[in-house]
Write a structure and sequence with these properties.
Blueprint (H helix, E strand, L loop, with lengths): L1 H26 L7 H36 L15 H6 L7 H8 L1
Helix pairs in contact: 1-2
The chain binds zinc ion.
């Protein structure tokens, strides 16, 4: 099972890295001359910054999960040590918290 998980995590790793790079590239586009276009450009930048932050955050989580996998601690909640449900890991391979802890920290 670990090989599957590793392959999935590596896939996510390149996906989030690609997204972080793409948004970074878009953010470096020159600001247009036209006033209306500038306003639009600023709005786009806000959206892009949100996406870039999210991609970088998820990338860190994926890297952490790969480190836990290598250390033999993958699938254990980093907060309480409980086993993370297989269905949760299936949906979110980089999950580092069990459902209970995730709910506790979400609010
Ligand atoms: Zn937990």
């Amino acid at each position: 099972m670990n090989q599957d998980v590793r392959a999935k995590l590596l896939e996510l790793q390149s996906e989030f890295a690609r997204r972080a790079e793409a948004t970074q590239r878009d953010l470096q586009q020159p600001v247009p001359q036209d006033w209306d276009e500038q306003a639009q450009h600023r709005q786009n930048d806000e959206v892009l910054e949100g996406l870039r932050t999210e991609a970088r955050y998820e990338l860190v989580r994926v890297n952490d999960a790969l480190a836990r996998l290598a250390a033999g601690r993958y699938g254990q909640c980093t907060r309480c040590g409980a086993t993370i449900a297989a269905a949760r890991l299936e949906a979110l391979p980089q999950a580092d918290l069990c459902t209970t802890c995730a709910e506790l920290t979400a609010g």
